[in-house]
Amino acid sequence: MRAIIIAVGDELLSGAAIDTNSAYLSEQLAARGIAAVAHWTVGDDEQAVADAVARAAGSAEIVVVTGGLGPTADDLTRQGLARASGAELVLDEKSLAQIENFFRIRGRQMQPINRIQAMIPAGAEALQNTSGTAPGIASRLGNARVFVLPGVPHEMKTMFEAQVAPQLPQLTGVIVSRAIHTFGLGESDVAAKIADLMVRDANPLIGVTVEAGLVTVRMASRAESSQAARRQADAVAGEIKKRLGQVVIGEDDATLAWAVGELLRRRGQRLATSESCTGGLVGQLITSVPGSSDYYVGGVVAYADEVKHDSLGVDRQLIAARGAVSEEVAAAMARGCRVKFRSDWAIGVTGIAGPRGGTDEKPVGLVYVAIAGPAGVQVYRQIFPGTREVVRMRTALAAINYLRLALLG
């Protein structure tokens, strides 16, 4: 059984918002043995929605549409579905009562424009929205079941689980997805190491994606049961990890900061950070992990040279002689940070994030990362291309990864 997922919204086409709903829906459908064969995005246009729904219904057995169910003039998904179905919009009295009650219990007056949210194509079924004002719609178009859900993620997820999932067939075959995250090798290098596993008709089906500095190996394992699909995925995942070695940081929801935190927690060791060009971004990533207070003690944003001296003890003459962006100053920052916070490990970061400030000798994107630990200090030099934001993020991720490798020995 196949599914096509359609996300509706001008903001998705313009790039002002990112479609996260389709990824969630694909995962939920796969768990029921229903493969998403396409994700489509269309704008807030009645004819465009109608065309997309009709085309999807002719190609798949399940069509799920998200977005465009609001009360304003640019919310046209219900009208598009009605046009595709050749049906008129009719008022669903039960939905109207629920919308009116939504406003009443919050002490708010319902605006007349909210009434449109209770309109559905004749012959369709309204899906109750317990988290907002926009009911969903369940309909049939040819041989396809069509489900229209709100675009607000938490409303969409609640409605899918309560209203849509019970209506879906539970097929004997299921699809289990896995993701193995790596850092330190490029996409082509990772792909080269597992090329023989990536043939298009393989099971599990394997692909490689890149996002925010992480190269991720994604697997989709198909089998008659979830247990069998997981066994297949486990076997292939083990082989992938063996081939990629220490560049593997974890699976599924794992991040670099999480991986470092787990290593520090197991060792019972503590970390501190000292940052210049990253402006506290390393500390922010480290503390984005719940429970990071178990191992992270604090940090210093030493942007100005006098702060490097006053807070971290970096010698003024060293800064004058070697420059604030140098191997020696990075090492002194990490060493001073470790002493100041009495931590087992410390990170020191200095560099030129741009877009100005570079020279032929020290170009924009040049960074030094120092890792101070029980055995001494190691400094790494890198030149990262890209915008200021890209340089800062890649530097922070690299710093955390260098610490991870040091903890791994």
SSE blueprint:
Layout: E1 2-8, H1 10-14, H2 21-30, E2 35-42, H3 46-57, E3 62-66, H4 77-85, E4 89-91, H5 93-104, E5 119-121, E6 125-127, E7 136-141, E8 144-149, H6 153-164, E9 174-182, H7 187-193, E10 205-211, E11 214-223, H8 226-244, E12 248-251, H9 256-267, E13 271-275, H10 281-287, E14 296-301, H11 305-312, H12 316-322, H13 327-341, E15 345-351, E16 366-373, E17 376-383, H14 388-408
Parallel strand pairs: 1-2, 1-3, 3-8, 13-14, 13-15
Antiparallel strand pairs: 4-5, 6-7, 7-8, 9-11, 9-12, 10-11, 15-16, 16-17
Structure overview:
With 409 residues, the protein is of the alpha/beta class. The chain folds into 3 domains: 2-167, Molybdenum Cofactor Biosythetic Enzyme, Chain A, CATH 3.40.980; 174-251, Alpha-Beta Plaits (2-Layer Sandwich); 256-408, CinA-like (Maf protein), CATH 3.90.950. The protein is 38% helix and 26% strand. The protein is built from 14 helices and 17 strands. The strands form 4 sheets. A 6-stranded mixed beta sheet has the order 2-1-3-8-7-6, sandwiched between helices. Strand 16 (366-373) and strand 17 (376-383) form a beta hairpin. Helix 3 packs across helix 4 (77-85) and helix 10 crosses helix 14.
Number of strands: 17
Q: In angstroms, what separates the terminal alpha carbons?
A: 48 Å
Q: What portion of residues belong to β-strands?
A: 25-35%
* Cα gyration radius (Å): 27 Å
Question: What's the structural domain tally?
Answer: 3
Which fold name corresponds to the CATH topology of the largest domain? Molybdenum Cofactor Biosythetic Enzyme, Chain A
Named at the architecture level, the CATH assignment of the largest domain is 3-Layer(aba) Sandwich
Overall pLDDT level = 95
Shape: elongated
Describe the largest sheet.
6 strands, mixed
